[in-house]
Amino acid sequence: MEYELISKENMYQRLGIDKIPSNIDMFYDLSYDLSTYIFEYRTKHNYTQKQFAEFLGVRQPMVSKLESGNYNISLQSICDVMAKLNTKVKIEFSDVNEEANMLEKCVSLDAFEEMDSIEDLGEAV
Predict the structure, then answer these.
(1) Distance (Å, rounded) from C-alpha 53 to C-alpha 58?
(2) Residue 107 neighbours by CB under 8 Å, 6+ apart
(3) Among 1, 29, 56, 109, which one is least packed by beta carbons within 10 Å?
(4) CA distance 85 to 39
(5) pLDDT for res 29
(6) How far apart are alpha carbons 20 and 73 in whole angstroms?
(7) What is the rounded CA–CA span in Å between residue 39 and residue 67?
(8) What Å distances lie between residue 12 and 8, 68, 71, CA to CA?
(9) What is the spatial distance between Cα 116 and Cα 111, in angstroms, rounded to a whole number?
(10) How many angstroms separate the CA atoms of 110 and 28, rounded?
(11) Which CATH superfamily is domain 1-89 in?
């Protein structure tokens, strides 16, 4: 049996939408990252789902759920699984408004660097 990881774009297409609200979008991003990591770890170590389930101390259907990305796993369970994989969990938080401002500044700097002369600066302003 072959498994296919579902991309965010594929999920949008399946749901028939262009954009998902930000809280759901963040959830799917985290779910995708987790499911991809678990799938890649298992396949890298040549485990079947059944062998991997035994290694984790869960049943095979749980491994399937984890790899699908369609399972709302608790933070505690994530930590339990990652501890067995000898993997550190790191979650980053960032203010979306600050990221947008930084991106805007980067775009402004790129435009400035593309100018050939000081006269171009006057035209840009």
Answers:
(1) 5
(2) none
(3) 1
(4) 12
(5) 87
(6) 20
(7) 6
(8) 6, 16, 17
(9) 11
(10) 32
(11) lambda repressor-like DNA-binding domains (1.10.260.40)
From first to last of the 125 residues of the chain, give the pLDDT tens digit. Answer: 566 666 767 777 777 777 666 777 788 889 999 999 999 999 999 999 999 999 999 999 999 999 998 889 999 999 999 999 999 999 888 776 776 666 566 655 555 455 555 555 455 44
Q: Which contacts qualify for 88-91: CB closer than 8 Å, 24 or more apart?
A: none
Task: Please classify residue 66 by burial: count the beta carbons closer than 10 Å to its beta carbon, then call 0-12 exposed, 13-18 middle and 19+ buried.
Answer: buried
Long-range Cβ pairs for the range 26-30 (8 Å, 24+): 28/69
The two tokens of residue 84 are: 């067995």
d(CA 10, CA 15): 9
